[in-house]
């Protein structure tokens, strides 16, 4: 994972556990459409999309709340929100 030169907060385990556990919708990336533009990384309000070597992106489902901002911002429509299966 690439470290940013600016301090960005990361979510932590709260009193009710991992925030990803109460997610109702789940973002899924279609990597065949992803152009590695990194907009989803920048706009995720929880900073739960990791930037990997080669500018691949990966969602940390332990903390993603399923807000859908990444799916809205993705210019390639590469992220779809699907119902979380519990
Ligand atoms: S916003 Fe979309 S195209 Fe850009 S890196 Fe994220 S998933 Fe890929
Ligand atoms: S659904 Fe929301 S919290 Fe989860 S990765 Fe996308 S923008 Fe971040």
From TrEMBL:
Pfam family, one: Fer4_21
Keywords: 4Fe-4S, Electron transport, Iron, Iron-sulfur, Metal-binding, Pyruvate, Repeat, Transport
InterPro entries xref list: 4Fe4S_Fe-S-bd, 4Fe4S_Fe_S_CS, PorD_KorD
GO molecular function: 4 iron, 4 sulfur cluster binding; metal ion binding; oxidoreductase activity, acting on the aldehyde or oxo group of donors, iron-sulfur protein as acceptor
The keyword Transport is assigned to this record: yes
Record-annotated 4Fe-4S ferredoxin-type domain positions: 25-54, 55-84
Cofactor: [4Fe-4S] cluster
Keyword Transcription regulation: no
PANTHER family per record: PYRUVATE SYNTHASE SUBUNIT PORD
Protein known as: Pyruvate ferredoxin/flavodoxin oxidoreductase, delta subunit
Source organism of the structure: Acidianus hospitalis (strain W1)
Lineage: Archaea, Thermoproteota, Thermoprotei, Sulfolobales, Sulfolobaceae
């Amino acid at each position: 994972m690439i470290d940013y030169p600016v301090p960005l907060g990361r979510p932590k385990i709260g009193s009710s556990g991992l925030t990803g556990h109460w997610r109702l919708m789940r973002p899924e990336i279609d990597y065949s459409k992803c152009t590695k533009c990194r907009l989803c990384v920048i706009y995720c309000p929880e900073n739960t999309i990791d930037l990997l070597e080669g500018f691949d992106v990966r969602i940390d489902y332990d903390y993603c709340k399923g807000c859908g901002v990444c799916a809205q911002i993705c210019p390639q429509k590469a992220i779809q929100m699907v119902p979380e299966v519990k």
